[in-house]
């Protein structure tokens, strides 16, 4: 299926230009324009493409597998996506923004149209890894990985025996952990999730749809940031066993309770050193 990509540099605020806001008033990526029709939201875009290109359908015909797909995409849309924004901003964008003068940081955050998200970005920038939102992000990703391990016990793919929109929807978030070298060090180990990611990366569509779509300097900058994040994540995980900070009784996914003190200490360790400029 032929398509043309247009890179939007979100660190430069290109998603907030009048031209882009006319396409998506929320000021977020991605969008799909098909013959003049604008389709927004990643899950909706994936479902749309699946409908118009039924040669290799990714929505199962089995009712139970279709329900599994919807459960996965619902969890991604309602929890994982926002927490991935928290994780990415804290591990990567914040590092870049801390090199800017305070007034430029204020200007960049102020461009976010949604007042609630502006407030969150300010918190993510100010508190970094010690903020409650980052701790919640760790918790949400832990639930996602645990659910993946369970789903992959009897099947090669998340919803069943065939690749589906569940795998497509979850891939970017698991890959983000891998890009920050967090996945291989995640406690406890997630061997089935790692094997699943290897299968996804082996598909011919993975490379053209992932790193090759970014401008050429990005992979170098990302690798440097990822190495720092990975080193601190390894230290983060070694200080306490996973039982002390990933237990459901301490991490209530559906509440706004503050993290335990042990988590804050760990978060501080993870944050230490990531404020330094990334190596060229």
Secondary structure layout:
Blueprint (H helix, E strand, L loop, with lengths): L17 H6 L7 E4 L2 E4 L1 H11 L10 H35 L4 H9 L4 H13 L4 H20 L13 H15 L11 H12 L3 H4 L7 H23 L3 H4 L14 H11 L9
Antiparallel strand pairs: 1-2
Number of helical stretches of at least 4 residues: 12
Strand content: under 5%
How do the strands of the widest beta sheet line up side by side? 1-2
Based on secondary structure, the structural category is: mainly alpha
Kindly give the count of domains: 1
CATH topology: Glutathione S-transferase Yfyf (Class Pi), Chain A, domain 2
Give the overall shape: globular
Strand count: 2
Largest sheet: 2 strands, antiparallel
User: What is the residue-mean pLDDT, rounded to a whole number?
Assistant: 79
Q: Which CATH class is shown?
A: Mainly Alpha
Describe this structure in words.
α3 (63-97) packs across α5 (115-127), α3 (63-97) runs antiparallel to α6 (132-151) and α3 runs parallel beside α7 (165-179). The protein has one domain: Glutathione S-transferase Yfyf (Class Pi), Chain A, domain 2, CATH 1.20.1050.10. It has 280 residues and is mainly alpha-helical. Strands 1-2 form a two-stranded antiparallel sheet. The model is unreliable at 239-280 (pLDDT under 50). The two termini are 37 Å apart. 58% of the residues lie in helices and 3% in strands. A hairpin with a 2-residue loop joins β1 (31-34) and β2. It has helices at 18-23, 42-52, 63-97, 102-110, 115-127, 132-151, 165-179, 191-202, 206-209, 217-239, 243-246, 261-271, and strands at residues 31-34, 37-40. The chain has twelve helices and two strands.
